[in-house]
Write a structure and sequence with these properties.
Distance between the termini: 100 Å
Radius of gyration: 33 Å
Length: about 600
């Protein structure tokens, strides 16, 4: 289901109802660009700490904007085991141009070409995009509207308003009290904007918004005063309507945030008794996760465009996101671990992940959750639309359910089969012996019964149990750590060790030349350490081992493991100073003793 500005407001009540009843929501966002073409130290790198990566990426997020948001709202169907219905919606967005708000943003040629390749509708984005604003922008607009200091600032709006005022003024000269005229083709929050200007400029008119456009009626000043103070369409009411319309998608964003926050986030302990051991684990009450795939950029844009401008502090950003969305699940982070354990074929994108989980390679394919599309969202039943935001959001949700089911069966399946076989063995023993007394059998059954931990009936709370280690762990591309923890301190790096390259007989060599030297063997991020030394870092242990082996004993390129206390220029400088001071002290001591 595609929604633009014309359809958004009437769909808002339905969207609110869906979100409030959802088990979880899949998210995907398309942008006008991904990263600024920064050079040198401003480029993101495997050397970056999470805080450094954030500050570099923050600049790109502020430069580009959102052109499409896809949400897929998943809800379990009551009365049907492990069956879910998905409502998938595409929202075309365009920044609010209202009053003093006139946003600037950039297009990146490669991003435009990429989206165009997959059929993105730029007309809907540019002509019928749903407006939006963040909280800081809303405060400014609200203050200006409610205090009467609001003015039309953008040139196109000024031209339109001037033409409307001229048209109405000419009509007023000939009109009688009670006559009316219609201004067609004015809709959305711009209709409220036009009404506000007309009522302020012309004291003997009244305006009403109808389906055919803005209706202007000539009235007496006394009647005008009466309408302003008694009508349900009085100025104080529709000033709020103007603000509501100008906020656009930001209204729904707040609904989504409130739907997450209203869920109980308490964690309840549960103890499972067992004759052999005591297993204590945490069971989560129902919550509504926000699910994405490689969703770090999505979260940055959500913060910047709908909440507040991105703060300079990385820690503050983490706190804000965790406050907005207490439960995040990144399917990229989940599937990375599953792929290693299950030995699935290598994949490079979300569509390929979905295809593998839907294939016979998935041992739980036939027992997994059933997902159906809602009646107004059947576009994706037979049609694949990669990189359409709602389709990718649907894939995110589907991958989450299938991976969670796979984890659930993996955790409980083997234990259940073992315990069940032991119990069946005791049953066979007593039947073969034709034991007259059932006392001993009952004793054994009572002892073994608690050990039987059958595979639980799959439900979303069960899926959340097995996904607990991945909650609020969001994948990070090209940084010093592989993921960000939004509910606590980030985990230490598990990247391969840093290598140091010492170069002989290659004067004036640059980082770019070093990169090209090794790119056929493996890809390294390169950082200059000294005039003839460079640091090399890769995210693959295999590449680090290969380059150490390949360049062992090389006459001009010496590669070894980097050791801070041995290779750092700062440490070497301190040691040299200490050596000089020690030498001078020793000489002074020697010559001081040899003197008269």
């Amino acid at each position: 289901m595609d929604l633009g500005a014309d359809e958004f407001e009437e769909s808002l009540p339905l969207l609110q109802e869906l979100v409030q009843e959802a088990d979880f929501v899949g998210l995907d966002i398309e942008f006008t660009g991904l990263r600024s073409n920064l050079s040198g130290p401003q480029q993101i790198s495997l050397f970056d700490l999470p805080s450094e990566w954030y500050l570099k990426t923050r600049q790109s997020v502020q430069q580009f904007t959102i052109c499409q948001i896809g949400l897929s709202v998943f809800s379990a169907i009551e009365g049907e085991a492990n069956k879910y219905i998905a409502h998938s919606c595409n929202f075309f967005l365009f920044p609010t141009t209202f009053g003093i708000l006139d946003s600037e943003f950039s297009f990146q040629a490669s991003s435009v070409q990429f989206l165009n390749q997959y059929g993105f509708n730029y007309n809907k984005f540019l002509k019928n995009g749903i407006p939006y604003m963040n909280e800081e922008q809303e405060k400014k607009i609200r203050h200006d509207i409610l205090t009467g200091n609001w003015r039309v600032r953008s040139s196109p709006d000024k031209d339109q308003i001037k033409a409307v005022i001229d048209k109405v003024t000419r009509w007023l000269d000939l009109a009688k009290e009670g006559d009316w005229m219609t201004l067609p083709g004015i809709a959305g929050f711009q209709a409220f904007e036009v009404q506000l200007v007309l009522r302020q400029a012309l004291p003997d008119i009244w305006t009403v918004l109808k389906d055919e456009g803005v209706v202007v009626k000539k009235v007496s000043k006394q009647h005008r005063w009466y309408l302003q103070n008694t009508s349900c369409d009085r100025e104080s009411c529709w000033k709020e309507k103007i603000l509501l319309s100008a906020r656009g998608f930001s209204v729904f964003f707040q609904m989504l945030v409130k739907a997450q926050k209203r869920r109980n986030l308490a964690v309840l302990p549960r103890v499972v008794s067992n004759p052999w051991d005591q297993v204590i684990y945490l069971r989560w009450p129902p919550r509504m996760p926000l699910v994405g795939h490689n969703m770090m950029m999505d979260l940055l844009h959500l913060h910047e465009k709908f909440f507040r401008p991105l703060p300079e502090s990385y820690d503050q950003f983490k706190q804000n996101i965790h406050s907005l969305f207490p439960v995040l699940i990144d399917t990229k982070n989940v599937t990375k671990d599953i792929w290693k354990e299950m030995n699935f074929p290598r994949v490079s994108n979300l569509s390929e992940v979905y295809e593998v989980l839907n294939s016979d390679l998935n041992p739980t394919k036939n027992s997994g959750p059933e997902i159906v599309h809602a009646s107004r969202c059947e576009k994706y039943v037979k049609t694949k639309c990669p990189h359409e935001a709602a389709y990718d959001a649907f894939l995110c949700g589907s991958v989450l359910l299938k991976v969670a089911h796979l984890l659930l069966q993996k955790i409980h399946g083997g234990c259940y089969k073992y315990k069940r076989s032991v119990t069946h063995g005791w049953e066979a023993y007593f039947l073969n012996k034709k034991c007259a007394s059932l006392t001993l059998f009952l004793v054994v059954w009572l002892f073994m019964g608690p050990c039987i931990d059958p595979v639980p009936e799959s439900s979303f709370p069960q899926y959340l149990d097995v996904l607990a280690p991945y909650v609020n762990q969001v994948n990070l591309i090209r940084a010093g750590v592989p993921k960000i923890n939004f509910s606590g301190p980030d985990y230490p790096s598990i990247r391969p060790p840093i290598l140091i390259l010492s170069i002989k007989r290659w004067p004036g060599v640059s980082e770019q030349q070093v990169y090209h030297k090794f790119q056929n063997l493996c890809k390294f991020d390169v950082r200059r350490l000294t005039r003839s030394q460079f640091l090399l870092l890769t995210n693959k242990f295999k590449d680090a081992r290969n380059v150490l082996k390949e360049y062992r004993g090389h006459p001009t390129l010496c590669i070894s493991l980097y050791r801070y206390w041995r290779h750092s220029p700062d440490v070497n400088c301190v040691l040299q100073v200490c050596g000089i001071v020690t030498a001078w002290a020793l000489l002074a001591f020697i010559f001081g003793r040899s003197g008269p």
